[in-house]
Task: structure prediction
Amino acid sequence: MYQKFKLLLIFIILIGLPAFAWYFLESGTAMRKEAMEALKPKIGISHFQNVEWNDTPVTEDSLKGKRWMVAVLGADSANREHVQTLLKLNKQSEVEFTLRTFVLAGMNSGETAEYLNANLSVPVNDPKWLVSYMAAEHVFPFTEQIFSTPADYQKQSIVVLLDDKQQIRNYYKLSDPDDLKNLVRHLPVFLSLKK
Result:
């Protein structure tokens, strides 16, 4: 019995562990290749001018030279949940990378920037975050023009990954669980891309 146990242990060490490691290495390589394909540069952003919640001007030059996760949020009840998702993504990546987040959110009539900051729990005093609000009916037309949003991603809350050369790398629907899984997988690859 002891002899069989020793043979089984040797088999696991010599065959099982390397096979297990090879399988996960191959899976990781395939996932990175898929992410690299999805993150190929698509198009540059258009010129724009807007203001942050505190009336500080924001233009495309404000985004130059850094990688951004741009969140386009309609004026709806899911925004608080969407901001929580953005916060989790920031927390997840902060150990290895600096993730900058630009939030463009719609506001309904009668709402103020201060109210939305508090209601959505947006970290407006964090220098890695830009937060801008505009009338609800203008958010999607504005961002569709700036970020050349494909038809499948128009008129809904999305994330756009934007590289340091202002090239759009990919789009993700915040309400689609599969898109969110792809965003979680693609984000570390996006942040580690060579310049």
Observations:
- The chain has two domains: 1-38, 49-192.
